[in-house]
């Protein structure tokens, strides 16, 4: 009798867990509700920004669309939750969002203590400094005594403290919780320096009153591998999200683009046919819990990694960020994805 009671209690607990928003069957939940709930930046030009009609666009937004394409064959099946630096982690932990696709650095603390999983790096970044050209500073090592604007709830704060300490420099941190407050403080001259991920600086500079009066210093003081995060404890969903990112990079490797993906389905290269799901015996997609043409859908929906990069933050955008470290491994960068086979 005792044993029976105990197993009933365990059953109830498992049910409660399974039925909660943070359930471990995210793919099934996502399919059932018909959309991916994606946590994105509250507004960072090029990365995630809603237009006047509320349509979200950007590099991180396209990743949400890529996952929706993989699951539903439809990039529009996404709902967006804009999240500040501080709010993003509770939102993922609680199950309010299915993925965090928001300039988030993969660190050991987030991978362990906070309970997340990271695997793909969609943007290799590093922390930098922006100053007014009029300050006549050429290096971060000349910033002793500066007032430095920084946002709370980021890796940026600790890197900043470490860098100034390691170089024996004094500084005055000016810390805000909201991005608008940091931007306003820097733009009004309350801070001499703005520090965040270098990609963020390129983006934020465009929103200043006079972008041309500001420059980004050459120093990169940290490693900021940015990528999508999911909750621990759901390997299938983790695989879907990771392999969506890898599909984008593999497509660029193969020369598959949004424009030629239909033609590529009939490529004589068996590797490409398998990737796009047109090899008769493939189980590559179904093993992932998706259809065999999931990668075709991703590329049809958003294009390959290079296309997503150039359109949102590269040469086809006002940011004009160079590929740099984010070039393919075969072109001098470190973007490298394991094979789909
Ligand atoms: N990559 C860093 C920084 C990410 C971050 O939140 N950056 C700020 C400044 S660019 C931001 O995006 N803020 C937007 C917001 O809080 O709404 C991290 O993961 O902690």
Automatic annotation (TrEMBL):
Location(s) in or outside the cell: Periplasm
Domain of life: Bacteria
Solute-binding protein family 3/N-terminal domain mapped to chain residues: 35-264
Parts forming coiled coils: none
Assigned keywords, A-Z: Periplasm, Signal, Transport
Any one annotated GO CC term: outer membrane-bounded periplasmic space
Signal sequence interval, chain numbering: 1-24
GO biological process: amino acid transport
Keyword Translocase: no
Family: Belongs to the bacterial solute-binding protein 3 family.
Designated name of the protein: General L-amino acid-binding protein
UniProt source species: Rhizobium mongolense subsp. loessense
Source organism phylogeny: Bacteria, Pseudomonadati, Pseudomonadota, Alphaproteobacteria, Hyphomicrobiales
